[in-house]
Amino acid sequence: MKKGRLIVISGPSGVGKGTVVKALRERDPNVKLSVSATTREIRPGEIDGVHYYFITHEKFEQMIAEDRFLEHAQYVGNRYGTPAAPVNRMLEEGYDVILEIEVQGGLQVLERRPDAISVFIAAPSFEVLGARLRGRGDTDEEKVLMRLQQARMEYLVAKRYQYIVVNDRLEDAVADLQAILRAEALKTEHQEHLLKEDD
Amino acid sequence: MKKGRLIVISGPSGVGKGTVVKALRERDPNVKLSVSATTREIRPGEIDGVHYYFITHEKFEQMIAEDRFLEHAQYVGNRYGTPAAPVNRMLEEGYDVILEIEVQGGLQVLERRPDAISVFIAAPSFEVLGARLRGRGDTDEEKVLMRLQQARMEYLVAKRYQYIVVNDRLEDAVADLQAILRAEALKTEHQEHLLKEDD
Fold first, then answer.
1. Using CA atoms, how far apart are residues B3 and A18, in angstroms rounded to an integer?
2. How much is the ipTM here?
3. What is the DSSP letter of A42?
4. Residue B110, domain CATH
5. In terms of CB atoms within 10 Å, which of A134, B12, B44, B129 comes out highest?
6. For residue A171, is it within any domain?
7. Please, what sign has the CA dihedral across residues A147, A149, A150, A152?
């Protein structure tokens, strides 16, 4: 069976990564989403193994020591990481697997897996990003400014991603992602078997 | 205005390059087709400047001497070449320009214009290619076998193209080309301006 592709998707808080990825998955049943592990407390409504694998600090440290993460990072006192085993299993089963992660973790994955497809989702502008963050209604102005500052840092490393998709209209952003996945499969390195006559 | 992209499309005789390109152009008005120059005789129904620029051997030699071709090649005693000027004009006007040419010329273009997008159109199999060549009705078996031999040579250099599209169902091949053009525009090198806040 043909192995799936690893897809790293990053972008600033408020850009709508989750919505874009959800819409892509609805359209392409061959795309699966990786589940992260975290040491933070489970919140009401969250399901272990669906939203996150909720694990202890000790377990997290042990998994780092055993090199069982594709990437891991610290965020507001808690740890987050992508366990490699479930991702590798889905890839072996032929699924494309999306890691929807922060740039800090994204770059770690790109170092380890240079064959991964990497997409940075950008906002149409910082004004729009600010408006979207404010529109959520659950963040105060100071937090909005902190997230915009964070976005500026993320944009500085975004050029290490292969593709940049602007999430202006959701439909366009999803079609962009679909075009990227389709075109990547057509790259000669993945198609050379077609040039052999004995196939 | 945003400059257009140069697109080199090659593939064996009988694979249906022309049909795929025609269908792509019908769907994407931003795509133009380059017109080649040739020294061969004009045939009934052909229009100078539309099917080819029909020029003399002397003129052809002069254009080579003045480095006015993107590529040129000899085929069955006649010369064929892509004049650079009209292509550059269309690119400046923002059109994507397709060169539908033999691999011999295609590789010359890729050397001169490493930024070109290159797509090799392959047949689903040699059996299918043979059947298509025979189905044209205008070629005898010896010519079919010569074209298949020619195709084998072309497949050997096809790996120097960036993408390989199989022309099995026309609709799929056209959608493949559209995905390639869309994804290429999303590459970070073409999108970096989006990462600057002052835009």
1. 33
2. 0.89
3. P
4. 3.40.50.300
5. B12
6. yes
7. positive
Location of structure tokens 């799929």: B172
Number of domains in chain B: 1
- In angstroms, rounded to a whole number, what is the distance separating the alpha carbons of residues B119 and B177? 8
What is the helix (H) or strand (E) element at residue A69, kind and residue range? strand A69-75
pLDDT tens string A77-108: 899 999 999 999 999 999 999 999 999 999 99
Question: What is the domain range of residue B24?
Answer: 6-195
Domain-embedded: residue B1? no
Whether chain A has a CB inside 8 Å of the CB on B162: the answer is: yes
Q: How far apart are CA A20 and CA A24, in angstroms?
A: 6
- Residue A100, in any domain of the structure: yes
Contacts of B126 in chain A (CB under 8 A): 197
Give the residue among B82, B157, B153, B80 at the shortest CA–CA distance from B112.
B82
Count of C-beta atoms within a 10 Å radius of residue A118: 24
- Enter the tokens of residue B18: 């022309």
Which residues, listed in sequence order, are joined to residue B81 by a DSSP beta bridge?
A: B37, B72
For residue A191, give how far its alpha carbon lies from the nearest alpha carbon of chain B (Å): 6
| pTM given for the model | 0.91
- Is the CB of A157 inside 8 Å of chain B's CB atoms? no
